Structure formats: structure tokens, C-alpha cells
Design the sequence.
């Protein structure tokens, strides 16, 4: 990985003492000093920095960095013009050390003499070692390779390695070089755009694979229960976080539902969430439940987590075949919400809530028996749904606020997907924008 070059004031070629003074087309000394100021860096929409070498080439004078051991003997015309008729500034360096010092953000293109020796390499080892070194030093800059007229094969190989084009040293003139610089800058910009597009597609593919792992299709064949789920990522994250859920029906007719949350939001946390979700499904289908299941999941987490401080909260519910009763286990997770016709929505008991997975070795998670009734809706959710703020203050929605919200929406006749969509959207609106944490919520309905 190349060593970052310290930002410094751009040094015009005439000031370095290695190039001719600018022609009258360059304007006043004040304008030249203005042109010489560094382009700097600008934040993109995600808050990251991108070099203006990729963004502002069309709005400022182009600057060429010539790296050649004998610049005074070069046939390059110093007062070349760009497409807009502005002078192309030339900055010269005799070696790679000088090039590193002169390679500031306002350099748009590098013209490299392939005959230059690379530090620590001989010509017999790698005749393009100097080019590889420059490409590592300036990965976002356009590079033109300069070679002898009888060495076209070497120039073509330079393009294959990463240069935008190659030129013959003894055939240069100002017009040819001006055109080559413009072409190289635009080609580099196009390559960068294509690379970003490819990276975006790759992230989308990874996101879909993670989504299939974290948010699977429920296995409810043979059950009369209706299922709905909704997921919304937190602010400024393209990938899913550590929220996960699953629902399966075992051969005895019991419906098992689970929702969990791995602390953190990175790809490692998402991968760990996938592992826990798959382990839960396998253990459930194998007949484990309650304390035995959660204890085994804790062992999985302890073996798979990257850091001892990583933990996961979990809520599991096993609904009896008749649909009227359920067993509830909580591992540091918010209690589910139960809504029934003619009765206000309420939280299920959480007095025996056990610790989150991964916090206490040998912990226990009591299984509580709860009565559901003949007709009901049971909502499981992650803490992203209740930790959003209410307006501009520091007050959060909390479980009480969520309960009141769902009571009202349930009274308005909202059910299934409509209810979840309305709940998530209202929480976001109350927060005044996107939530900082991921939100996962699932709903099971029993209608006789």
C-alpha cells in the first residue's frame, strides 16, 4: 500500500526551476498563483473524501507531472493548450522522490519516462518496475508512458499494466501531447466510474446474499398462521446489519419464531447473525427449545465471534399446535407485543428475562408460558423500532410509546404488512429522518 503523500502547496514548474516560464497566455502573476493552489479534497454524499483530480479536471487548468531524468533535453512544448484553450501547466521531476513531493491533488496526468530506474530494482528484473511504482504511488491519476520509438511492444505492455496510453519520446509535439493528456484524463475518469459501478454491483450482490441468510423465507407449510415481516437498514448503510429472524413449523405442529440482534453493524456482525439464525433453525428442527437451545446458541456465538465483547440479544417463541398458548424465552431482548380484538395491545411478561447471549458463561434462560387466546397478532421486533427519538429532543419512543402506537394502528384496522409498514414509517417520521439502528420486525396472526 503506497505511503500517503502529505498535502502541500502546488509548485508551478517555473517556480521549481525546472521548466520554462509560462507564455503570455498564462495571464497575470496573480492568476498563475491562483491556478497553483491545491485543488484539495471534497466530501461526497456519503461523507467520504474523493480527489478533485477526478471531479474538477473540466473546470480547472490541467496540470501535467513529467517524470524524466533529463527534462531539459525533452522535446515537450511547455505551453500546450487544453480543449478549452487554457494552458496545460507542466511540473517536472528528475526522479521518483521528487515526483512524490510534487504529486499534489491538482495534478491530473503523469508523463513517465519508462527508462527511469525504479528504487530497489534493476532493468533486468522488471523493465516496467518504475511504472508499477508510480501506479502504486498515484492510483487515482492518469498515467502516460514515454518510451523510444522502436519500443512499441514495451509501450503496449505498459498500457496492459495500467497506463492509459503510451507515446514515443522522439515524436512528441505540443498538439499531440495535449490531445493525449486530455484522452488519458478522460479515460482514467471513465475507468474509475466503471470500477465504482462494479463495486456497487458487488455490494448489491453481497447484500442479497446476506439478506437471504438473515431474513429467510419462513417454513410454515401446514400452519394456519399468517406471517409478515419488514426490515429497514439504519442510516447510511447499504448492507444489512446484525438483525435476523426466522420462523419454522416442526412436525408436531408447533410454530417456532425467533428474532435477534448482534451488537454492531458491520459485515462481521451480519455474518455472525447468519450463523446464529441457521444454527437456531437446525437446533429447532432437531427438537431443542428453551434453555437448552439458547445455551447451545451461546456456545456457537462464543466460538464464532471475532471479539469477546460481541454479544447478541434473542427472543424465541414456540406456539402450541392449537395456537392458544406459547412458550417465551428472552435473552436480553425486548418482549413481544400481543394484540387481540377488543383488548388493548400489551407487552408479554419480561420479568424472567435472561442475559444476552455471550455475556455470562453458564447463564440460564427461563421459559415462560403465556396465553394467547383464540384470535391474536404477535409482533416480534428489534430495538431499532423503540430507540428512535421523538422530535428534536433526547426523548426516545420506548416500548410504552410503541405499544400506544400499535394500539392505535390496530384499532384503525391495520393488519399484517400494512400494520408493519405503518409502524416502521411512523417511527421514522417521529425520529425526523432515518433511524440510526437497523429495524427488523415480524408479525404472526391467528384468525380462526
Sequence:
Amino acid at each position: 500500500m503506497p505511503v500517503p503523500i502529505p498535502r502541500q502547496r502546488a509548485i508551478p514548474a517555473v517556480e521549481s526551476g525546472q521548466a520554462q516560464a509560462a507564455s503570455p497566455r498564462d495571464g497575470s502573476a496573480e492568476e498563475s498563483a491562483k491556478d497553483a493552489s491545491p485543488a484539495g479534497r471534497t466530501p461526497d454524499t456519503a461523507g467520504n473524501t474523493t480527489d478533485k483530480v477526478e471531479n474538477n479536471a473540466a473546470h480547472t487548468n490541467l496540470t501535467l507531472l513529467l517524470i524524466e531524468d533529463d527534462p531539459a533535453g525533452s522535446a515537450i512544448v511547455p505551453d500546450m493548450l487544453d480543449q478549452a484553450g487554457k494552458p496545460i501547466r507542466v511540473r517536472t521531476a528528475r526522479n521518483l522522490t521528487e515526483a512524490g513531493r510534487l504529486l499534489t491533488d491538482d495534478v491530473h496526468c503523469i508523463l513517465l519516462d519508462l527508462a527511469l530506474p525504479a528504487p530497489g530494482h534493476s532493468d533486468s528484473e522488471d523493465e516496467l518496475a518504475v511504472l508499477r511504482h508510480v501506479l502504486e504511488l498515484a492510483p487515482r491519476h492518469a498515467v502516460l508512458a514515454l518510451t523510444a520509438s522502436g519500443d512499441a511492444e514495451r509501450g503496449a505492455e505498459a498500457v496492459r499494466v495500467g497506463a492509459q496510453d503510451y507515446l514515443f519520446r522522439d515524436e512528441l509535439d505540443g498538439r499531440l501531447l495535449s490531445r493525449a493528456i486530455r484522452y488519458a484524463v478522460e479515460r482514467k475518469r471513465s475507468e474509475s466510474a466503471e470500477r465504482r459501478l462494479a463495486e456497487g454491483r458487488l455490494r448489491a450482490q453481497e447484500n442479497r446474499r446476506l439478506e437471504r441468510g438473515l431474513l429467510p423465507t419462513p417454513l410454515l407449510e401446514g400452519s394456519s398462521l399468517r406471517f409478515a415481516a419488514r426490515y429497514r437498514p439504519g442510516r447510511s448503510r447499504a448492507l444489512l446489519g446484525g438483525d435476523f429472524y426466522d420462523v419454522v413449523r416442526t412436525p408436531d405442529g408447533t410454530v417456532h419464531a425467533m428474532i435477534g440482534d448482534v451488537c454492531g453493524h458491520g459485515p462481521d456482525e451480519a455474518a455472525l447473525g447468519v450463523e446464529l439464525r441457521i444454527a437456531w433453525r437446525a437446533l429447532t428442527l432437531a427438537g431443542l427449545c428453551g434453555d437448552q437451545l439458547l445455551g447451545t446458541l451461546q456456545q456457537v456465538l462464543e466460538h464464532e465471534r471475532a471479539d469477546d465483547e460481541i454479544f447478541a440479544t434473542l427472543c424465541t417463541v414456540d406456539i402450541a399446535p392449537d395456537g392458544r398458548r406459547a412458550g417465551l424465552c428472552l435473552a436480553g431482548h425486548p418482549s413481544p407485543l400481543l394484540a387481540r380484538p377488543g383488548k388493548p395491545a400489551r407487552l408479554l411478561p419480561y420479568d424472567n428475562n435472561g442475559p444476552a447471549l455471550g455475556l455470562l458463561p453458564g447463564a440460564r434462560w427461563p421459559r415462560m408460558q403465556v396465553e394467547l387466546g383464540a384470535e391474536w397478532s404477535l409482533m416480534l421486533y428489534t430495538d431499532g423500532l423503540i430507540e428512535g427519538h421523538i422530535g428534536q429532543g433526547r426523548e426516545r419512543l420506548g416500548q410504552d410509546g410503541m405499544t400506544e402506537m400499535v394500539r392505535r394502528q390496530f384499532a384503525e384496522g391495520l393488519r399484517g404488512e400494512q400494520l408493519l409498514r405503518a409502524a416502521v414509517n411512523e417511527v421514522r417520521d417521529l425520529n425526523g429522518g432515518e433511524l440510526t439502528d437497523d429495524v427488523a420486525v415480524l408479525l404472526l396472526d391467528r384468525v380462526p
Q: What stands out?
A: Residues 1-59 have pLDDT under 50 and may be disordered. The chain is about 35% helix and 20% strand. The radius of gyration is 32 Å.
